[in-house]
Amino acid sequence: MKNVSLLLFVMLFAFFGCDRNSVLDQYSSMSKEQWHMDSLKHFQFNIDDSLAIYSMYLNIRNTGEYGYSNLIIFADTDLPGEQHIRDTINCILADDKGEWLGSGFGSIWTNKIPYKTRVRFPRTGKYELTLQHGMREEELEGITDIGVRIEKLN
Predict the structure, then answer these.
(1) Which pTM was predicted?
(2) Which CATH number fits domain 20-152: 3.30.70, 2.70.240, 3.30.160, 2.60.120?
(3) Which of 65, 109, 134, 146 is most buried as measured by Cβ atoms within 10 A of its Cβ?
């Protein structure tokens, strides 16, 4: 019985233990499952090691109500020292046949889109990433959440 309890404890710790390589893993939910063009999503994080290598991902949750196979996102990064970088990301959410990509649960699909892989941040300090959709429609129906994950690779 002790061996079973110990095994269960180890499994639970491994499953629920903290992710030491995660610098940021955060979502922002959309009001009424709609993302308005003027609704900016802000994510703040600290970088304490400018020599380490990181990967950044955009996590997108959508329903079948989303009317496109892709999502254009403008990503504005404010670095310590008032430097600013703007990127445009084309996030592919469905294949050529219109089938949703990513993992699905019920009527919601989640995609982990690589944004910047194997990069170094130029300096330590507080960063802010601001996301805005860049589609032609002002209000996108079917986008439920947008998230950012930053992983420290070494």
Answers:
(1) 0.84
(2) 2.60.120
(3) 146
